[in-house]
Design brief:
This protein has 199 residues and is an alpha/beta fold. It has one domain: Rossmann fold (3-Layer(aba) Sandwich), CATH 3.40.50. The strands form 2 sheets. A 7-stranded parallel beta sheet has the order 3-4-2-1-7-8-9, sandwiched between helices. It has a two-stranded antiparallel sheet with strand order 5-6. The longest helix has 14 residues. The two termini are 24 Å apart. The N terminus is likely disordered.
C-alpha cells in the first residue's frame, strides 16, 4: 500500500482516539500488530467515568504487545500499548513520560482525545502518527489538527467503515488532508510501520 510505504521509518509514537464502536475497531487493529513492534501506542477510548476499565485485561489477551492502563509519571516504553484510565486525561510529557490530569472535561469527555493528541504533538512533532476512529462526538478533531500542525501524520477511519460516523466526519472536516482508510487498510499501515522501525 502506498500509504504504508510513505510512512516507513517516519514514526516514533502512535496516538489513537475512539469512542462509540471503538472496542470493535481496536479489535480489528491491535491483534494484527507485530510482536517485534517498538513503537509505543497510546489510546484514548471514551468510557464511563464512574467504573474501572477492563480494556487492558481484554486487549492483553488479544494483542502480541504488552498492554497496560497508563500510570502517572510512567516513562513511555517502546513496543507498549497504553490505555487512558477512566476519568483522567492522559497526556505525554517531555521524557517522554505519561501524565494523568483531573482537569475539566474537554468535549464532554475525560479522558479527552484532544488533550492526548495535542500533548503528544508537542513532544513528538513530525514523528507522530495520529489516528481517529469511530465515535459519536467531535472529540479528536482539534487534536488531529494539532498533530498536522506539528508536521505529524494523520489518518481518519473511512466514515462508511465506522460504526459511528460523527467523530470521523468532524475530524475530516477539520483535517481534510488526512489519509482516509478503512480498518483493514489501517491495519496494513500499522504492520508496515512495525517492520520499518529499527532501534
Amino acid at each position: 500500500m502506498n500509504a504504508a510505504l510513505c510512512l516507513a521509518g517516519r514514526v516514533d509514537a502512535i496516538v489513537i482516539g475512539a469512542s462509540a464502536g471503538g472496542v470493535e475497531a481496536l479489535m480489528a487493529l491491535l491483534p494484527g500488530l507485530s510482536a517485534a513492534c517498538r513503537i509505543p501506542i497510546v489510546i484514548v477510548l471514551h468510557l464511563p467515568r464512574d467504573r474501572p476499565s477492563l480494556l487492558a485485561q481484554i486487549f492483553q489477551q488479544k494483542c502480541p504487545l504488552p498492554v497496560c492502563e497508563a500510570a502517572d509519571k510512567e516513562p513511555v516504553r517502546p513496543g507498549t500499548v497504553y490505555f487512558a484510565p477512566p476519568d483522567y486525561h492522559l497526556l505525554i510529557d517531555e521524557g517522554p513520560c505519561l501524565a494523568l490530569s483531573a482537569d475539566e472535561l474537554v468535549n464532554y469527555s475525560r479522558p479527552s482525545i484532544d488533550v492526548l493528541f495535542e500533548s503528544a504533538a508537542d513532544v513528538y512533532g513530525p514523528r507522530l502518527l495520529g489516528i481517529i476512529l469511530t465515535g459519536a462526538n467531535e472529540d479528536g478533531a482539534a487534536g488531529l489538527a494539532a498533530v498536522h500542525a506539528a508536521g505529524g501524520i494523520t489518518i481518519v477511519q473511512r466514515p462508511d467503515n465506522a460504526q459511528a460516523k460523527q467523530m470521523v466526519v468532524s475530524a475530516l472536516n477539520r483535517n481534510p488532508g488526512s489519509q482516509v482508510l478503512d480498518l483493514a487498510e489501517i491495519s496494513v499501515v500499522l504492520r508496515t510501520l512495525d517492520e520499518s522501525v529499527t532501534t
